[in-house]
Amino acid sequence: MRVLVVGSGAREHALAVALAGDEDVEEVLVGPGGPGLADVAEVVPLDPLDGTAVAALASARGVDLVVVGPEAPLVAGVADAVRAAGVDCLGPSAAAARLEGSKAFAKEVMASAGVPTARAHVCTDAAQVAAALDAFGAPHVVKDDGLAGGKGVVVTPDRDEALAHARACLDGRPGTGAHAVVVEEFLDGPEVSLFVLCDGRDVLPLAPAQDAKRLLDGDRGPNTGGMGAYSPLPWAPEGLVREVVERVAQPVVDEMARRGTPFSGVLYCGLALTSRGVRVVEFNARFGDPETQVVLPRLRTPLGAVLRAAATGRLRELEPLTWSPDAAVAVVLAAPGYPGDPRSGGAVTGVEAAAAVPGARVLHAGTARGPDGGLVAAGGRVLSVVGTGGSLAQARACAHAALAEVRLDGGQHRGDIAAAAVAQDAADPGPADPGPVDPGPVDPGPVDQGPVDRARA
Predict the structure, then answer these.
(1) Which residues on neighbouring strands pair with residue 199, listed in sequence order?
(2) Phi, psi of 63 (to 5 degrees)
(3) How far lies 438's CA from each of 48, 187, 197, 228, 457, in Å?
(4) How many other CB atoms sit within 10 Å of the CB of residue 318?
(5) Rounded distance, CA 197 to CA 264, Å?
(6) What is residue 317's DSSP assignment?
(7) Is 453 exposed, middle or buried (0-12, 13-18, 19+ CB in 10 A)?
(8) Which residue ranges does the chain devote to CATH 3.30.470.20?
(9) What CATH number belongs to 120-184?
(10) Contact 360, 384 (CB under 8 A)
(11) Kindly report the CA angle at 439 between 394 and 265, in degrees rounded to 5?
(12) Minimal CA–CA distance to 327: which of 240, 230, 418?
């Protein structure tokens, strides 16, 4: 089959690598793509937000499956346009993508489906926010209701900081159109990311991963789109994936079908393993970044047929997925100034040497060619450097050995991705909790599964 991957980041690079390694995939196109992809795919010019253009390209090139990577095209209805042109597409409709496009809507769906999550107030003015912050107490959790590139959440003990973030969201940052915020209870415990393929009726989980959202070691600093990830999770409770499928993913897919907006694509379940059990932190409507970069290298089942089965309502026809016992660790190299004001244009060198490290792969997230043809930073997150190995310790060492070959003046990366899990695994080979890892929102009290409380002034 021919596959078109829509997007230009490290997630799309990881998808292209996995699809190119599938013997049943004869051609992989990526648009708009970017440097570093030419060895695994044909890079094609494309506006990822233009559904008509995406559908026309897919039709003209005889594409059998379109895989939409980022969230913005899904919320804009690109998957609808592709399917209307008669091309199979992995990605939910614009109506179903509201699970990511609006956190308030996601809370409403979870309440209807009985999915465990933190209690929340949906606020549309500062007075409502102030009342909600006081009702829940610190630490304060404030989320931009709309898309924010992974940077719309503030978790802070400082009420003034929380209120300032809420005001910025309510004012509507340029391009977001956000005029509501969700104030939640804080959720304790480590976070887990689980991708679940959905075909509108059935669900199929992939392997869990954990990402690091904070900029700095020790889970300090501002939230980002993700500074690294690892898989597998040796400390995760036995039966976690089954529980998430039964209590979260399947109920949500059933509820979306009941509403007449079936969810077909990837349901990203962001979870907190709290002292009171699994709670949903957030949903995304696509593969996550950087978790995709560590989950796909471990998948032994060829990816193309799996994604097409999800896109065409045939998940129940698949054989069980097979996974490598090896581990994968991704460390993100970010531009100076990220996430607040990333500076582009800095020369990026050493990528070839990094890619030559055994077990390593360098995935391009935000790069471009400079005037002299050299590689330069062109985004907040510049590269994902992925290491694989027979253990998390080996994969982690591989990633850092490769990253040590790369140079970007002022570049930022974390040095502790998977370190707690490696230390815990060495101390106790059995399942264990590595402690809070960028916990995000946590539930200190009873879970309210009733209707979302829309705060009133």
Answers:
(1) 264
(2) -70, 135
(3) 31, 11, 25, 12, 32
(4) 15
(5) 8
(6) G
(7) middle
(8) 191-317
(9) 3.30.1490.20
(10) no
(11) 80
(12) 230
Beta strands 327-334 and 228-231 are antiparallel
Instruction: Identify the CATH number of the domain defined by range 2-91.
Output: 3.40.50.20
Structure tokens at 450: 């009733």
Query: What is the Cα gyration radius of the chain?
Result: 21
pTM for this one?
0.90
The boundaries of every CATH 3.90.600.10 domain in the chain are: 327-423
Candidates 123, 175, 167; CA nearest to 148 is: 175
The CA distance from 149 to 151, in Å, is: 5
Residue with structure tokens 């026809």? 317
Sign of the torsion angle spanned by Cα atoms 188, 193, 199, 203: negative
The answer to whether domain 327-423 has CATH 3.30.200.20 is: no
Has domain 191-317 been given CATH number 1.10.3720.10?
no
CA dist 117 and 185 (Å) reads 9
Give the list of residues 6+ apart from residue 162 with CB closer than 8 angstroms, or none. 129, 133, 140, 141, 142, 154, 156, 183
Q: From residue 320, how far is each of 41, 131, 246, 302, 355 by CA, in Å?
A: 28, 49, 17, 12, 32
In a structure prediction context, what are the per-residue pLDDT tens digits for the chain, which is 457 residues long? 999 999 999 999 999 999 999 999 999 999 999 999 998 999 999 999 999 999 999 999 999 999 999 999 999 999 999 999 999 999 999 999 999 999 999 999 999 999 999 999 999 999 999 999 999 999 999 999 988 766 688 899 999 999 999 999 988 654 444 479 999 999 999 999 999 999 999 999 999 999 999 999 999 999 899 999 999 999 999 999 999 999 999 999 999 999 999 999 999 999 999 999 999 999 999 999 999 999 999 999 999 999 999 999 999 999 999 999 999 999 999 999 999 999 999 999 999 999 999 999 999 999 999 999 999 999 999 999 999 999 999 999 999 999 999 999 999 999 999 999 999 887 764 444 343 333 333 333 333 333 343 332 2
Instruction: Tell me if residue 392 falls in helix, strand or coil.
Output: helix
Q: Which two tokens stand for residue 382?
A: 């510049």
In the β-sheet with 120-123, what is the strand arrangement from edge to edge? 120-123, 181-184, 140-144, 153-156
